Amino acid sequence: MTIAMQPPSRNSKPRRRPLQDSVVTLAHGSGGSAMRDLIDHLFVQEFDNPTLATLEDQARFDLASLISLGDRLAMTTDSFVVDPLFFPGSDIGALAINGTVNDLAVSGAKPLYLTCSVILEEGLPIETLTRVVRSMKTAALAAGVQIVTGDTKVVPRGSADKLFINTTGIGVIPAGIAPAAQQIRPGDVVILNGSLGDHGAAILVARGELALETPIQSDCQPLHELVAAITRTCPTVRAMRDATRGGLATVLNEFAQTAQVGLRLQESALPVKPEVAGMCELLGLDPLYLANEGKLLVVVPPDHADAVLSTMRQHPAGLESQIIGEAIASPAGMVVLQTAFGAERIVDMLVGDQLPRIC
Question: Which residues contact 96 (CB under 8 A, 6 or more apart)?
Answer without folding.
Answer: 78, 80, 116, 136, 165, 167
